Amino acid sequence: MAPLNVSMSSKFTQIPPISSTKPLFTLTNPLVSFPGHSSPQLLKCQIKSQENFLFSLCESVTKTSFLALVSASLFFVDPALAFKGGGPYGSEVTRGQDLTGKDFSGKTLIKQDFKTSILRQANFKGAKLLGASFFDADLTGADLSDADLRSADFSLANVTKANLSNANLEGALATGNTSFRGSNITGADFTDVPLRDDQRGYLCKVADGVNPTTGNATRDTLLCN
């Protein structure tokens, strides 16, 4: 985008007393050069009274010039707002957020980033979460039943009292202090999930069922004796 060149030559009238209803000051003869225009466009701006502080663009600004000003202003937006409403893997920002009780059921959230988010009682029933990251997330009481969690990252995550029935966790990561205590894992597939010995031992005590998608018995995928 061509640069917006602005040269200002302004005269300011004396600021009147607060009680005055006259304009605080008038900005006259600022020359604004817009791409595609052979000569500068005259822009007159006036700051209204102290009571309302309204700003107006005068009639001399053409529609094209106004659009150019709006486009140029985008370069001065706070960078922190640039990702509002859009994350790297989906339509929403979901990393480091409090998403307690949020409904993601049935959604396609492949490689979605939920790192460090609070997802207590969140509903992921039947969601496609291949490669999604739940690194250091709190999934206490979350519903992950029937979810496709292949290659998902549960490292350091709290997955206690969650519903993982019939979920497919093939190749998922569960390193560090990941905990599945109190979770329903009936029919879940833990094939190639690297579990700590204490977690594997605990899950084997409650393991039951066969995953309806892979046909694998939960106890077999956990390598239970």
TrEMBL record:
- Look up the coiled coil feature and give its residue ranges: none
Q: Where are the transmembrane segments?
A: none
Which InterPro entries does the entry link to? Answer: 5peptide_repeat, At2g44920-like
Q: Which Pfam families match?
A: Pentapeptide (PF00805)
Give the CC-aspect GO terms.
chloroplast thylakoid
Q: State what protein this is by name.
A: Thylakoid lumenal 15 kDa protein 1, chloroplastic
Q: Which organism is it from?
A: Citrus clementina (Clementine)
